[in-house]
Records
---
Amino acid sequence: MKAKIEIINSSSFKLLPIKKVASLIAKVLEDFKFEEYSLNIIYFDNSQIQELNKKFLNHDYPTDVISFNIDDNPLIAEIYIGVEIAKLQANEFKVSLRNEILRLAVHGCLHICGYNDKTVDEKTIMSSLEDKYLEYARKNS
């Protein structure tokens, strides 16, 4: 297996960052020394991500991002991004939808790399890493 990232748009939104997300996530995985991986990133609407959230996490509401590690050696994983929630959050934080989707993709990837965000300290570390990679994406646009 080699390094493979596939992005699938199952949402009703059509103009979503695909190449930028793929290249940024490849950078994150490279930095964390993953050489062989298969990662799917799937864009979902509210109803789709709510169904996933309910089925696997027992939360009956739409969410912004859900990550699943299917295997660790080699890394096989999936990241689901709720585009409608991302749009709401982009408006709330006064950033572009592209920026918010990039942040959510990085956030999901960090979970796959072993990071958590249950405590204040863990959230601070993840937020700092998200900011680092968003800055990288901005500089390499």
Note: The longest strand covers residues 37-44.
---
Amino acid sequence: MKLKLSTKVRYAMRLMLELALHWGEGPIKLELIAERQAIPLKYMRQIAYALETSGLLISIRGPGGGYILSRPPGEISLLQIVKSMGGSLSLVPCIDNPRYCERSNCCAARELWEEASSALKSVFENKTLSDLSQRQIALGGV
């Protein structure tokens, strides 16, 4: 089985990580983040808009403007980022929508998928941007 997070979720995580690594240094221009992360600027703008709408980013306008995190990296869970992009950590569609499958109410496998999905969700819920930043720094990348 292969769980694959959407490109939007992965790029949002990279954008947020970039801001977390530079937390407290002031706003960072989206163009710079897009360049550093090798993500098309047009796509990065869509992602930033969704993150801002979700309350995870603040846009600072004008000269010296850019984006900053809405709160410290230790207060933003990785699950919040996934959810802001409309992502799901459910292994199968019937976890999010039991009506997806007519067997949902009597399926032993669904119970297993639900348990595994819950464990995955717990990992993302209990890890923060600060945790991810520390991992990135340990890998030698800033």
Note: The first strand starts at residue 57 and ends at 60.
---
Amino acid sequence: MPDDQHVDERDVVVYLGLLMSQARDLILASRHPLRPSQFRVISMVPYDAGVSMTDLAERVGMTKQGVGQFVSGLVESGHLAIEEDPDDRRRRVVTRTQRGNEVTAELAWMLEGLEETWAKQVGERRYAQFRRTLEEIALR
């Protein structure tokens, strides 16, 4: 980068980080304090069905070993359960417990409220476009 150019301290990463801080603070302030990364893992397990460790790792964007560490901790805390697949005993299936379902529903509701706050700040139409744009970029 040429010497005469400076990096704007308020680049998009800083702005996204500020938004993530608001979401993280909301999650940590709940009556079920989880790290946002833990919530992400729980929320990627289907509500009414199990998912293999391999599929969960793909959904979350982590290695199978990495997601396995998260799952182990969430099993210990009572949010998730691991069961053997009756059709393939080598395959482990991750499911949400009742506690995991309750936490996921509560935190999703709280985050929805945060999004409503953001939408009120900039207007419903502008926020909807912002969200669609984020989804398009994130899901490519």
Note: The helical segments are 12-29, 36-43, 53-60, 64-76, 98-122, 124-138.
---
Amino acid sequence: MRKIKAVLFDLDGTLLPMDQDLFVKTYFKKLALKMAPLGYEPEKLIQAVWGGTSAMVQNDGSASNEDVFWNFFGGVFGERALEDIPVFRSFYEVEFQEARTVCGFNPQAARSVRLCRELGLRTILATNPLFPAVATESRMAWAGVSPADFEYYTTYENSVHCKPNPDYYRDILAHCSLTPQECLMVGNDVDEDMGTLDLGMQVFLLTDCLINRREADVSLYPNGGFPELQEHIRRLV
């Protein structure tokens, strides 16, 4: 096995245990309750958020994910939606925090990040940049980690691609002056995270909250829980 210099960690379902469907359902319900008094019909609101999310996933790199999302959302609801951006931000600061109740917590997540740093490895949070920084930093806190634990973390403000587009990972590598061969990608989603193998990264599939839409053979990847991950990392230093 090649020695590595950096570990890229996914967040949702990796460092932060969750049932993704339950989390999204809870998040959308709280968002709809927040925005209904301002005249946003819940079903149309949720469809617009999904549409904006899809637009970010298809981003060709010509604009930030943030701009792509609001361009789509504004196209649905008009200019008034852009005037309400501060209300959406306040949602992430307040009501969104309640979604923590449907997430788990595993102290081994923070220990795994800390282990990397103790071993002299660079740590990067490679979470799909579909959320603003305030929401990403909140979910980091729920997982027991903080921005200080990572040299870089992706948000919709600082990113122009999304998973599973390999350009998302290429952007991180360029930003951090790393080659794929110097990196280990740790994630729970076979499609979104393990594709980095094709770029030349090493991978580890965390199976605690596994997402395997195509029922791929997970034995193709080093895999397991946090104890296995920590042992795997030690072997790569």
Note: The CA atoms of residues 192 and 204 lie 12 Å apart.
